[in-house]
Amino acid sequence: MNASATVGVGSCLSTSKPLSIGLSPVPIYLRRRKRRCLTIEAEVQLAGSEVQSTYRRLIILRHAKSSWQHPALRDHDRPLSKSGRVDAIAVSQKLQRMGWIPQLILSSDAVRTRETLKIMQEQVRGFLEAEVHFISSFYSIAAMDGQTAEHLQRTICQYSTDEILTIIGWEEAASMFTGASVELKTCNAALLEAPGKSWEEAFAVAGYGGWKLQGIVTPSSNLYRHSENFEQI
Q1: What domain range is 83 assigned to?
Q2: Which of 72-86, 179-193, 214-228 is most confident?
Q3: Which GO terms describe its molecular function (predicted)?
Q4: Counting C-beta atoms within 10 Å of the first and last residue's C-beta, which end of the chain has fewer, N or C?
């Protein structure tokens, strides 16, 4: 959701200045490799024969491609490129068809992240109806390797309720939560699930490495499946 969108348009997730958590800047060649994301949170229930299990869904989404047309702009203020806008439309429509619609969106306040989310809200009513919080720290924390997952976890637990089940965050968080190497390009979304009656319980049970990677959604190709639960779209 670079300083990107959403826990999970967060959020998850190429920069010159840190996202916005108030930490010292990173050398420019490192900043441009950082991903910003947006975070979205929602809830899902799967019915069993006797017991109904509740699953928490976490969408790790990098912001769409940003424009470098105006190099004098601060990294935080760079808008989306034309291709980035097209990609944001495509991914939002795919998430809608799959039923991965957020109830809570935790997003970086960077311009490219806000624009990614706005486009998704224009395309999918469910995104527009979700509760949204712009978290300034999501911008700067992305410049700190190894700390994004913990920060995302704390923020999710702070803003979520037991009724909320789907979120969007950063690439680094996706790798830590699943225990796998997850690489997300701009406007790619990783779909994660873990059981839990609350977000605190889901994080306690799954921990780091126990979230199931269900698949990865990209703007230009079909869903890359990790689970038989998803059909190609």
Answers
A1: 28-208
A2: 72-86
A3: peptidase activity
A4: C
Residue 17 belongs to a domain: no
Q: pTM of whole model > 0.90? A: no
Joined together, the tokens standing for residue 28 give 């420019």
Tell me, yes or no, whether 219 lies in a domain: no
For residue 184, give the CATH number of its domain.
3.40.50.1240
Please indicate, yes or no, if residue 3 is contained in any of the structural domains.
no
b vs e for 199-216, b when ≥16 Cβ sit within 10 Å of the residue's Cβ? Answer: beebbeebeeeebbbbbb
Question: How many domains are contained in the chain?
Answer: 1
